[in-house]
Write a structure and sequence with these properties.
Among the domains are: 214 residues, BirA Bifunctional Protein, domain 2, CATH 3.30.930; 39 residues; 105 residues. It has twelve helices and five strands. It has a five-stranded antiparallel beta sheet, sandwiched between helices.
Length: 566
Amino acid sequence: MAIYHFNVRGVKSPKKQEGAARICGQTKFDYLNGEGIFREKLGEVVFGESGNIPAWAVNPRSYWSAADAFERANGRIAVHLEFALPKEASPEQQIALARAFVDQAAKTVDGSLPYTWAIHHNKGNPHCHLLLNERVNDGIFRERETWFKRAATGKTRPEEGGAKKTRGISYNPVVDKTKPRWVRESPWLRETRNKLETTLNNWLISNGHLPVSSLSLKGQGIDRTPQIHLSPVAAAIEKRTGKKTWRGDQWRAHNDIIKAEAELAAAATEIAKISAIAPLPSLPLESTTPKEKDFAWKQAIVEYEATPSEETYSKAVAIIEGMKKNKEPLESESNKLSQQIEDNKNNFLKAVRRQTELGQELQTAKDNLSDAEAKAREAHSEALSAQNALTLKDREKRLWHLGESKRVTRYKEANEKDKQAVAAETEAKTALERVKKALDDYLPGDKIKAMIDKDEAELAKIQPKLQTLSLELAMAEMHLASAKNKVEAPARARAEAEARAREREAEEKARQAEARAKEQARLEAERVALQNTEKKKSAQKALNDKPSTRTFPKNLSRGRNNGPSR
């Protein structure tokens, strides 16, 4: 699916930049075309082209180098546009699309602008870079030093001044914060975005693809959280250091939000599907169709609702259990085929690797056999040569055991080498035959692939039936549960009412018992208190009725003078 990506950056004069990493026109040109310090990028460059370059420039690179050298310090060397190209297009079609857009972008109200553009393919991401210089090529010859001077406005000889700078390019936004961002873009930027959108959509629509839009999601009226891009710099830092970056945290948090929104949308869709299911009584009962058994559970549930009983409920449950039993072999077969496919895929990979290894072993065995045959031929030739070199005298000495000459020794050594070479050749032939037999006996990958295709075809036949039966079973169980709740609701309500009544009665009895207990306790307390009061009164009365008597010691007299008592 094609995407819309468009980015604009300005390239300032290097005279105002400090440090070694200065971004200038020549650096941009080298990056676009994979030259200079960007030679390692040459593999990503698919096509490059320049146009409207003045006659004094030897080549496009010299033009951008002169722009760096002679453009005024506070001037702008170029405008760098970057835009995505559809993946669905072939390289030739991508070149045609890029060229069509560049032709439009390079034409302004003041004239044609010098440009350089190139298409890059980076990891399946086709995109185009465009450098636009704002000096209008009016066809008048100037020296390169003069070309980048201020234009000779108001003079009769324009060649005395520099090439005129167009006023048609301005990507600074309009300062009006009351309007949305996509409305505050400069007219040139909005017009250029629209040109790219039109160019891409003309090709996409004519080739049966979905169109793209230069507007944001909000501008298109789409209520969805936009995605953000994890820059290659942040990704490289996290990969190299193993530490998280601020941009990476922002990207991950944003993805979590998008994932949560997707889950909510999926849940809402599922809820809508469930809500769209018609109530059970209104479900069509296709009893006259050949698939009457598929709707038997509906009839059984309707019958159970009409005449609730243990018999009708058991009938519906039996039908659903039968559906489960019908599902089991399909499910078992599906799992079996899925496991076979997975195993065969692993076997296919193993077969490919093993066949590669056997092929290498076969080639090694052939090479070893060739070497053994060459050595055997060489040893045999040497043995024949040594045998032919033997003289009659050498043979006689050997026959009478009178010693051996050097020629005889050489002959014996050559003959031994010849035997060893023949043995090595025989062993190499045996190894080659063994590898060939192993290669023939091993199950080739194409047969395993055919088995995988066969199992996948059978699985494709079973899956729709299994899905249909699973959905039908889920609906049957759901409707049976709903019908059971509906049937049992009155009895359940009565039981709950009776239980609540019993609870209230028990609570009332408990309250009454508690009240009686409290009353008995109060009466008992009053009785005990009354008894205590009566006892106190009796004790006080007995005390008051008893006569008072006093006793004195015998040796003491009652009088003051201790005289005898009277």
